[in-house]
Design goal:
about 130 residues, alpha/beta, two-stranded parallel sheet, 4 helices, about 45% helix
Length: about 130
Amino acid sequence: MRRERRCSRPVAQARHAIQRACGDTMGTIRRTEELEATAAELELIRIEDLPRQTVSTRSKTFNTERKKAVENYNLIDSACLAVRATLERKESRSQYLWVEYPDIDDENWNCMLVASKDGDRILFEKHQPNEG
């Protein structure tokens, strides 16, 4: 996908770009190629779009646009984590069908994934529900 470079980006457009990137990819039918493309698009948004967000007013009081600009950083983190966790879990479960992994795999994936950060890397660890 060719991206248009801009000097500034309205907060709402940055948020919409995150939502659009995850849109169909994180729906009930998932494909590896699309998930990987979404992960790459989210990183571009993080690097290129979020730092260029512009707020139309400089007020620090009741400035919802400024608040949403900060929230966009949390939104991109959550979106990246969801996509990475989906790529990590190689199975279909519940209403989610992963085309390349159509079966439930309780032997390997009847667990929770716990994410942690090591520098810029996201690490996942499997935890059984009954573990402390």
